[in-house]
Design a protein that fits this description.
The complex is a heterodimer. Chain A is an alpha/beta fold. Helix content of chain A is about 35%, strand content about 25%. By secondary structure, chain B is an all-alpha fold. Chain B contains 18 helices and four strands. Classes of the chains: A alpha/beta, B mainly alpha. The interface between A and B is medium-sized, with 34 and 28 residues. The complex binds adenosine-5'-triphosphate and magnesium ion (MG).
């Protein structure tokens, strides 16, 4: 049984249908990537999973239970961590305060979790007293990922972590995504940077104007002509 | 070389034109203030408004004020960095002193002792000001500070909850035309008045706080109006526009010990002081609690707070209701003190005034709210007795407006800013984020469904 599944999910903004019968599955321990151009509906999919949007009709199943109608802050408590598009760290809180907010629903000692995040992102340890808003873009992305990890999620939703970052930082972040999976957290990775995403992912889905048009193992997609043409910037053969 | 010189010239001429523009703005502002606060025209001499202000020696005082403000603001712009480092030094010293718990608690203790001893030395006029103008408004400001300062919610109908508290007092003590089943001493009405305010706050808050921040301002504004209109027109229940008299004073009856508060001010002052201290301690611990952290997160980014597991709606309603209950409590206290309640006391203007007190003191800062309320409520009373530049009570709001404008230029974080607020402004100067407490960063897509 899959850890997370969307079953024929439709989501509309007013009269605009952003998702049309989207179904996808994420198994425990996988890295799954969701690719698509601007406006394809990737962010909408993630917001639906974390309860910020409600599918009509359709179901979101997490760990065997239908989580439709559960409030977003409770979904966090169930074990779904969301790193939103554009990072959305708390700009006037320090790095440590940001990380503590990520563990808001948990009580008890945060020490081991802070150590884990600082282990993944040593730069955050250096800057632990700096205000979030003054971090560089890459550091903010790391902080956003760290904050979500503080909630000890079973599945981590990442919305375009490579957005606006230099290639070196992107490579670093994708390396860390692999480490996160190795430590037992499942990852659903939304990306436009198809080459990088497919190189770390096990499987991938391709979303076009609200519909899943392809799904396969990552290496298959990486060598698929249509994917190469549309998302890897290569002319069609 | 020559290029730098050219740049130098253009830079200084740019600066000079900015200085001139600033001079114009200050002088114009001062003249407008002079006219607005001067005498008004009549049908027999329609120009009296201008001859009595602009062509009157008092205009010189206003011009001097404008020039001084211009000089100050220009100096500030010129030496922004120097001023910065100077105030930073002061701030670091303050931080160091206040960071030390012993120093801080010692200061609080000294202030408390002063607050207990000093009023005994005042005459009865100032004792009354201390209760009716300062004490009650300190309580109100501290409560609104939770709503506006901690949670970043703009509540423009805050005074409506004060009315609810006051009318609760009148109802449960049997002063209204409609009688309760049993009459209560005001002390026992406290939980009931607070409950009524909280219920009203929750009923109003739950539907509105789901929406974006702006809606709350409008809905609370309307709510304030509704409450005052109902109080005026529902005469059979509320006694109508002329109000209700005969609300009893507080009293204590413990076996053989009896005490009755009455017309003298000092006993009420100490009662109020006791409540204010309790409320301050409670709100301080609220600020440092899990709830306080949740509110801070909501104020910064609602979506991120929700995604971090904060039940945004719940905490917003909670903050709103805490403010409402404080306001209701103040209403009960004041109604019982003056034995009287009338709809005319609950104007929108009063809600705005309390907002001004909080902003002036420093949003989100408890000492700021206390200080802001004390200073701004004391000053008009002082000016009433020592009119400077022909101060008139009815011009109060013009001066308050001018004061706020000046504050926003020189010290936008208030006279005693909270630590968080100082950070926000520091960041805003660097162009990161908004310094606007009211701008909930919620986006329209954030609401469920
Ligand atoms: N709040 C909203 N109101 C109306 N339409 C919206 C809203 N949010 C998204 N949409 C529309 O839904 C569609 C999908 O948007 P979504 O943000 O999910 O795309 P995306 O795949 O994340 O794109 P990007 O890569 O640019 O972030 C778009 O056509 C967008 O215009
Ligand atoms: Mg997106």
């Amino acid at each position: 049984m899959s850890l997370l599944a969307l079953q024929a999910v439709e989501v509309s903004y007013g009269s605009i249908r952003a998702l049309k019968a989207v179904s996808l599955e994420v198994q425990e321990g996988e890295i799954v990537t969701l690719l698509g151009a601007n406006g394809a509906g990737k962010t909408t999919t993630l917001r639906t999973i974390s309860g910020l949007l409600v599918p009509r009709p359709g179901k979101v199943i997490f760990d065997g239970a239908d989580i439709q109608g559960v409030a977003p802050h409770e979904i966090v408590g169930l074990g779904i961590g969301h790193v939103p598009e554009g990072r959305r760290i708390f700009p006037r809180m320090t790095v440590v305060e940001n990380l503590e907010m990520g563990a808001y629903r948990r009580r008890g000692n945060l020490g081991p979790d802070l150590d884990r995040v600082f282990g993944l992102f040593p730069v955050l340890l250096e800057r632990r007293k700096q205000l979030g808003g003054t971090l560089s873009g890459g550091e903010q992305q790391m902080l956003a990922i760290g904050r979500a990890l503080m909630g000890q999620p079973r599945v981590l939703l990442l919305d375009e972590p490579s957005m606006g970052l230099a290639p070196l930082i992107v490579a670093q972040i994708f390396g860390i995504i692999k480490e996160i999976r190795q430590s037992g957290t499942t990852v659903l990775l939304v990306e436009q940077n198809a080459a990088q995403a497919l190189s770390v992912a096990d499987r991938g889905y391709v979303l076009e104007t609200g519909e899943i048009v392809m799904s396969d193992r990552a290496e298959v997609l990486l060598h698929d002509d249509r994917v190469r043409a549309a998302y890897l910037g290569e002319g069609a053969a | 070389m020559s290029r730098i010189a050219i740049n130098g010239v253009s830079m200084s001429s740019l600066r000079r034109s900015q200085d001139v523009r600033r001079l114009g703005a200050w002088v114009l502002g001062a003249l407008i203030l002079a006219v607005m606060t001067g005498p008004s025209g009549t049908t027999t001499s329609p120009t009296a408004g201008f001859t009595g202000s602009l062509l009157h020696p008092r205009v010189l005082g206003y011009l001097a004020f404008g020039l001084v403000m211009w000089a100050l603001s220009t100096a500030r712009v010129r030496s922004r960095d120097r001023v910065h480092s100077a105030t930073r030094g002061v701030q670091q010293l303050r931080e160091k002193l206040l960071g030390d718990n012993r120093v801080r608690h010692g200061t609080y203790l000294v202030l408390l002792v002063l607050a207990i001893l000093v009023p005994t030395q005042l005459n009865s006029f100032w004792q009354e000001v201390l209760v009716d103008q300062i004490g009650v408004f300190v309580l109100l400001a501290v409560g609104l500070n939770v709503v506006v300062g901690y949670a970043g919610l703009l509540d423009l109908g805050y005074i409506a909850f004060y009315a609810i508290g006051a009318y609760s007092a009148a109802y449960w003590t049997g002063a209204l035309p409609v009688h309760p089943v049993f009459h209560l001493n005001p002390f026992y009405v406290i939980p009931l008045a607070i409950l009524a305010a909280v219920v009203a706050g929750v009923i109003l808050g739950v539907p509105t706080l789901r929406l974006r921040g702006d809606y709350l301002a409008i809905v609370t504004l309307g709510f304030g109006e509704i409450i005052s209109i109902v109080a005026t027109n529902l005469s059979s229940v509320t006694g109508g526009a002329q109000g209700i008299i005969g609300i009893p004073h507080f009293s204590v009856h413990l076996s053989s010990f009896h005490y009755q508060w009455g017309l003298s001010n000092l006993p009420y002052y100490y009662l109020l002081l006791g409540f204010v201290v309790i409320v301050l301690v409670a709100f301080r611990s609220l600020e440092n609690s899990r709830v306080g952290r949740a509110l801070a997160a909501i104020r910064e980014d609602e979506v991120a707070a929700e995604a971090s597991g904060v039940g945004v709606l719940k905490y917003k309603v909670m903050a709103f209701a805490i403010g409402a209950s404080t306001s209701g409590f103040a209403g009960l206290l004041f109604a019982s003190k003056i034995s009287f309640v009338a709809p005319g006391d609950f104007t929108v203007q009063l809600s705005i005034l309390i907002l001004v007190l909080v902003t002036f003191g420093g949003m989100g800062s408890l000492p700021g709210a206390v200080l802001g309320a004390a200073v701004l409520q004391w000053a008009p009373e002082y000016l009433r007795n020592h009119p400077i530049l022909g101060f008139q009570q009815q011009d109060l709001y013009i001066y308050l407006g001018a004061l706020l404008v000046v504050m926003m230029i020189f010290r936008p974080s208030g006279i005693w800013p909270s630590r968080r607020r100082r950070r926000e402004l520091a960041l805003a100067e660097e162009g990161v984020g908004t310094a606007d407490a009211m701008s909930g960063s919620s986006d329209p897509a954030a609401g469920p469904g």
